[in-house]
Amino acid sequence: MTQHKFYGNNKVFCRGRLISGPDIRSCAASVLMIAVPSTIWHIEVGMWYAERYTIVISAVIGLMQAASLVLLICTAFSDPGIMPRQKDFQEQYDAKTRTFRAKQPPRYFEVLVRGHPFKLKYCTTCNIYRPPRCVHCSVCENCIERFDHHCPWIGNCIGKRNYWLFYSFVSFTGAVNAAVLATSAAQLGLLTREIMNSDSEIGGGDALVKALGQEPLSATVVVYCTAIVWFTVGLCLYHNYLVCTNQTTYEQIKGAYSGDNNPFHRGAAGNCQDILCSRVRPRYFNPFTGKLLWPTSDPAFAPSNSPAAAPLARAAPPAGEAVADGPS
Question: Is the pLDDT of residue 158 over 70?
Answer without folding.
Answer: yes
